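Appendix B. Worked example

We walk through a single record from start to finish. Start with the input: the chain for SSUH2 protein, Polyodon spathula, length 636.
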Amino acid sequence: MPVLYFPVTKGLLMEACTQDHRYRQQLDTQNPPYDGPTAPPCENVQHSAGIRRHITRRKCIPSISEDTARDALVQYASSKCCYSTKPAETLVFSNLESHNTYRYRLETFTESRSTEWAHELYRGQPVDAYTQPPPAPWAIPAKAPTMFKDATQEIKIPNTAYVKPCHTCTGMGMIPCTKCARCGSKQCWVCNGSRVRAGGESCHHCNGSGRTTCDGCNGTGLNSCNTCKGKGQLLVYIRLKIKWKNNVDDFVVDQESGFPINRVSAVTGKKVFVDKQHMVSPAVGSPDPDISKAAKRLVRQHHAKFASTYRILQQVCLHLTCLRVQEHQRPLVRIPSISEDFAKDAFIEYASSKCCYSSRPAKELVFTDLQAHDTYRYRLETFVESRTTEWASVPYTGQVVDSYGSCVPAPWDIAVQVPAMFQNGKRTIQVPHTSSVKGCHNCLALGKSACQKCIASGWMQCWVCNGSGSRMSNNRCSHCNGVGRVRCTECSGRGSKTCHTCTGKGQLLFFINLIVEWKNHIFEFVPDKRSGFPVDQISKVTGELLFTDTQYLVYPVVSFPDNAINQASQRAVREHQAQFVTTSRILQQRQSIELIPVTRVHYTWKEKTYIYFVYGAEHKVYTDDYPAKCCCCTII
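Next comes the structure step. The output line below is what the pipeline stores for this chain.
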């Protein structure tokens, strides 16, 4: 278990400069050395007393010098295209405050295995399907990659390979040409099948026949099968898919310095304590109780999530202690007002995106007031799995029939791999031991059905002479040779077509399909309506994440400062669990609380007062009384 600390220095711009050694003396006075319990020893640490001394020496992070702080700010301003470096170069420091920021991380390296049917071209490979029973997926040896590095591997399972006719061409090696519908010829593109050109001359491209040799099959009407490459046989086997994944969860305790904790994930620090084992134990001796609670929760969640369906190869735990250094207590959340320039730019961009809005009010407005409002959004997501069954059929091409083999498994007894959590998905699986062969109901097992276009006659009325055999000048119709009818283009004059239900096989394989559907049900609640902002717009934006909790079944939020959030959480959790636990299987739940910034802007234009809102991290604009708009897309 490693302990990391991240140095964070907070600088204030004032007129005077506080000496650095006085500030450190003040910190030492307010924060005496910690002498409490320490984390349990592990294989990388000799004894617990050494850990205690190690943490005590690093309880205070030395302040950086003013020159280092200035150089860092100048470099930051230089990296921004719209930032001037003058404030960073001419500033006067008043105070540099050191803050300890810590990060706890749990990594669980897992291995998962799944099987699927696969096939390849048969070239005489060994066939071992009936020699001896195939090994179980977890009995097949596989070399694990580097620990805590994601990887995948595919292995052919022994004793599962056998040869079967190609399912695409039914073992023939050839398939009908799709360009000519197996006729070997197609309509001449020069005379469009009329045999003559516009001047009445015989078509030289098709020699007056109206048809040319198909270039897709060279006149044979057949093409080589792409699946078996003309061999007619496939080697079918079961493939084992192995996936190694490193599952990482972070927890940052200290939020009192005013530094956004999401920035900590982009940097590194010094390791204080590391524990790497097959299964780590939760940290119980941390000086900060939040670290101990987070360690217990994350270790419990990882074990419950991965131990039943995956193989845990190793875990590494970074146990972080936190000694807070602070001089003031700030409120839970504050949304700073945006500047007038920023509000105007957002409004101009909004007006420019509307075809019927003039940008003059946004450019000429006069601000009267900018009001910042705290708007919270509570979201509960319940990821569920539901299963239903239905009868299905496919053309019978020699598949295995197993309806009389053994008992049919129940829908919830069939193993199905769950996709990514909180993402909707659907999968259809054939239920084992339910397949049987029956005659096609559409063609009465004949493989062919009557052509509906020519009513099974093979002929159609000539569209040139409308069946009269002659044109308006009483000349014989060249399209039908005076007969008044032509061969049916739908069935090529045969009067029947291949049955689309059984594809001409005459038999169908009936079986039961299991339909597995994963759906993420979302509940959202926005309590704040005091700003006059329509809450339905909140769902279109994002904000600052204040709280998140992901478990199999979450507990309601009970201690949030806004009691409306607590009540909504209790109601949503109760309703979701009551609604889905009886009809579906709840796989996981996730709840979160976000802070959505909303600024209410008051302005005047042409001596009239108006209001608009700038909201969300995307800084979108909403207004329902824009002063200059029209319905005819003309510029005012």
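Two observations about the output. The chain has eight helices and 24 strands. The helical segments are 20-30, 48-57, 66-78, 86-90, 289-306, 340-352, 360-364, 563-580.
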